[in-house]
Amino acid sequence: MEQPSINSHIDAFSARLIRQKFPTKQAVITEIMNLKAILHLPKATEHFVSDLHGEFDAFDYVLRNGSGSIKQKIHAHMDGFLTPRHIEDLAILVYYPEDEIDHQKKHLHGDVLDQWYLDVVSRLLTLLQAAASKYTRSKVRKALDPNFAYITEEFLYNDARDFNKHEYSSQLLTDMLSLHQAEPFIIATCYSIQRLVVDHLHVVGDVYDRGDQPDKIMERLIAYPSVDIQWGNHDILWLGAMAGSKLCMLTLLRICARYNNLNIVEDAYGINLRHLVAFAEQHYGENPSFCPKLVPGDSYSFTGEKEQLTRIHQAIAIMQFKLEGQTIERRPEFKMDARNLLRQIDYKQQTLTIDGKTYPLENTCFQMIDPKNPNKLTPEENEIINSLLLSFQNSTKLKRHLDFMLHKGSLYKCYNGNLLVHGCLPVTADGKWQKVVFNGHTYAGKQLLDFCQEQIEAAYAHPDQTDDFATDLLWYLWEGEHSPLFGKKKMTTFERYFIKDKKAHHEEKNAYFDLRKDEKFCQNILVEFDLDPHSGHIINGHTPIKKGQSGIMAHTKMLVIDGGYSKAYHHTTGIGGCTLLYNSYGLQLVTHHPFTSKQEIIEKRHDNLSKIKTVNQVERRKKVADTDTGKALQHRIEVLRVLLNEDDAI
Ligand SMILES: O=P(O)(O)OC[C@H]1O[C@](O)(COP(=O)(O)O)[C@@H](O)[C@@H]1O
Ligand SMILES: [Mn+2]
């Protein structure tokens, strides 16, 4: 039978590259054997987190404990050999090795300390072996600290009880102590365990806003070996600012002022706010509606900061509302005329008419608004906004963070049969895809998301264009009625500042959020994204899960994992959020207790972990062959086979 040419599978360039990598027939055969064997390894663990909202310490803790995966591994391999107290101790050591060593050194000395080092080295090696057993040696090596890779491999792949190796292994351990290598070895091994227990991280949106350390989260993500991000509405604000949207920039600044977080902008990203501060001091005064929201544990850093923030908060909010009006007028296709609020105010009566209903306004601060032309910025406001945008776009650190966010991120992701999306798929009340018309074209369902994705990339590629359609669309994604990231009819920011009547604050959710409890509805979505409706799941963030509620919906088709990390929302959720694990046995939803502090965990000797609930258990343990990586490997094997056959034909 005639063999297909290699060119029917791959282009000539790729064929040349493969030939260079595997120049001999034996090399090709070895690679085929290697890849085929990998297909039979168990599926690696995926970890899903969402709505981190700047809470670095809580997020860092969830990464370190792998949402309970480390503890599960310890139980699986050491139950019966360690007492519950020693299991707890070992877990805390793996999470926070440096701090736990310091803690132990306060109590243990001399020979007792040396014995502790030896005990934990042996336990950690058992754990490392268990974590590494799912992977090839070459992958394990990449997860080891290069300083200790050789010696770790000696321990991992030799049996110390082997008569011939016994003295060899004990000499290694003796030297580890005498050469003061026990501590760095323990620390390195703990991080290798963390890295091997979870293979890939999905961040289902909203890294930014409300909490005060999003920059540290971004650094952590950049350093993480394997990660993807599905943008949340808050991330879009930051991407939007870098892409040139003044309105996105003002909105995120307003949120920073509201949560006493302007230090992120000033200190973490080096953006100068002096002109804005001076302007706010000059034109705005005290106003109870604009006092910053402090979360428990937060405090002001100088006397008068509260008053200063209250003024800045108003100055930004008013500029934001003016630019919203301008954008709405520039973009009739957004169909947001009803949100052009500054034009709907009766400035004499101090009332606002929305959807035919008139409300009295309180705590107003409209002194910089010209009632005849309310959306017009004053020259000074204009100047402030332009120079702020320049500083945003010129912040090297912010650019590095947002470039990473853009390149590792997307509006949605199909991964191993599941659909990951932060917010929703906008639908009509009867569950049909919501049709949205932009530039004369109608988009709905997956096409709407694909269109928005293209526009985000286009806007980011042209940061100098500040009021083109693509850049304006980034703001629409923040609060437009048919934005897949927002999923509500309107955002009532203005009403919450100035109208007392709570009914005016209501934000009606898209029908999606009720319909997603229905299995058939979820299956339709999976089909829309070319995923298997029977085995696939949809994973959402965005809507906090309250205590007593379940994030598992539609007979497990829908999994909602809003991290709920945000301290500002703990009083409503009562929990520290949910995360998800997907290992070779199936999916597990993890509910976390609110994170307190590293110190408390170490002092109280309790990791304060979280309830793990099995979502589904697969009938047959999943292998690499069942994953997207497996499919890619299978394709590589086919290509190599063709190469081999061509060689035979020569
Ligand atoms: O509680 P805050 O900070 O005022 O924010 C409320 C606003 O945030 C939103 O909930 C959007 O943010 P989330 O994506 O975090 O839910 C809006 O719907 C709402 O208007
Ligand atoms: Mn969100």
TrEMBL record:
It is an enzyme of class 3 (hydrolase). Keywords: Carbohydrate metabolism, Hydrolase, Manganese. Gene3D superfamilies: 3.60.21.10. Its EC number is 3.1.3.11. One of its GO terms (biological process) is gluconeogenesis. One of its GO terms (molecular function) is fructose 1,6-bisphosphate 1-phosphatase activity. Pathway: Carbohydrate biosynthesis; gluconeogenesis. It catalyses: beta-D-fructose 1,6-bisphosphate + H2O = beta-D-fructose 6-phosphate + phosphate. Its cofactor is Mn(2+). Belongs to the FBPase class 3 family. This is Fructose-1,6-bisphosphatase class 3.
